[in-house]
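Ticket opened by: R.M.
Priority: normal
Category: complex prediction / small molecule

The reporter submitted a protein together with 5'-O-[(L-methionyl)-sulphamoyl]adenosine and asked that the result be attached to this ticket for the collaborator who will pick it up next week. Submitted input follows.
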Amino acid sequence: MTKQPFYITTAISYVNAPPHIGHAYEVIGADVMARFKRLDGFDVYFLTGTDEHGQKVQKMAQSKDKTPQAFCDEIAATFQDMADYLNISNDQFIRTTQESHKETSRSVWEKLTAAGDIYLNKYAGWYSVRDEAYYGEDEMTTREDGKKICTATGTEVEWIEEESYFFKLSAYEQKLLDLYESQPDFIQPSFRRNEVTSFVKQGLKDLSISRTSFDWGIKVPGDEKHVMYVWVDALINYISALGYPADKDGLMKKYWPCDVHLIGKDIVRFHAVYWPAILMSLGLPLPKRVFGHGFLLTGGNKMSKSVGNVISPRALVDKFGADSSRYALMREVTFGQDGDISWPLMTARINAELANNIGNLVQRTLSQINKNCDGKVPQPGILEDVDHALLTHTGQEMLINVRGEFEKLQFSRALEEIVRAANAANAYIDEQAPWTLKKTDPARMQTVLYVLAETIRNLGLILQPFVPVAAYKILDQVGVAPDQRDFVYIGAQHALQPATPLPKPEGVFPRIVEEEAEAAQEKTA
Ligand code: MSP
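Result attached by the on-call engineer:
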């Protein structure tokens, strides 16, 4: 049976500085989704990478006395490193300074020109280097010190006047509005769709897409004093990664259009307005979904170096490990909304749900099986209603509910479903008290422990996208073969074989000691 393709991307990150926790949050979200879809039977292609051109990166390289390329190589490596220590399962890591990407970008430029959508004129207006974005008068305010800033992002703008190529964005106004109308899921969450629709309804101006006042970018074919606007080059990564236009490996044919562009709320406009217009001009099908997640905040504030509230992804993983860090970030904040995180919040979450709830369930069940069932999968007798109820809840029912949440990228709610299932299993073990049955009814004890082992198998399977290493350990401990770990194995048809020998149980989710978390926070600060 051929598997249905599923293409998911993150934004590509600027390499002006090493990754912060917002980058980690996004790539973890995409990874959780990619892993879920793979386990659910899809042929997944997962892309992430770095955005390396533009004035911001060039300026930063200059300030460090490095060539832009050497600087990019250094910082891009820190993003690749993050993908490793967060256990990210991307199929490709694209860098926009790689030759194949530059070739695709030039070819896209030529196609846009051939379509009559590019013309030369002069740009005079405001530009924010920090945001690498052009702003209109209505999008700016004046700060106390008299400097003009973008109202939404608070970054300083500068006046630029230079010759520039323009993309005829205005020609796509109605087509874009038709797109939002006919494909209501194109922009998610839905409140972001309303923001974009009203922006487009105000009228679109043509977009300046080249610069001449610096040179760190992809040269415009046929007019090399211009470099492409970094956002045009950046958006193209989603198709250059698939080998557009030559498509030598057939990746475009297989994976385009993209299923989800996962990005932050600050760059929805680029993905939901400029990108579909460029694709329309190229005659390519449009992505199915652009999902704009919220921002991670600490104490209600945006994380920033000057405020000193930055949590680095490396420090997070050093403290909690990759699995628990992934869990805490996906659980703590509703995907799509802004959310507060802190060391104490994450510690409390990990301890309550991973250590005390799920970890404890696994630990106490497996140690009783080890002691009382000869270290083998127990032999169940006839199941009672309570047993069936737990198995149904933690089997197909849990899968269906979790899948429903994944369709909406509601990772925190998916975890809530899983935690609820683990709670039900903990209530069952307390109620059935297998430690008492050991003396009063050993056959029933075997049944109860079997039902619990089976529940743990289902939980181990469904936890894989979030905590891949720990879930693997759980599955090893209940004797699940590595080739029986897809979601088709969730539920009764593939239940554990009684008498299968099991390894000696080991704890999977260690408790985090509060003082240690505080010490780690101080160290980072
Ligand atoms: N280079 C552009 C994206 C080009 S995509 C064709 C860019 N880079 S970025 O490094 O500034 O941001 C990368 C991603 O991280 C964006 O989706 C952005 O929204 C996200 N985040 C940056 N800070 C964040 C938080 N504090 N919280 C959550 N995500 C945030 O934009």
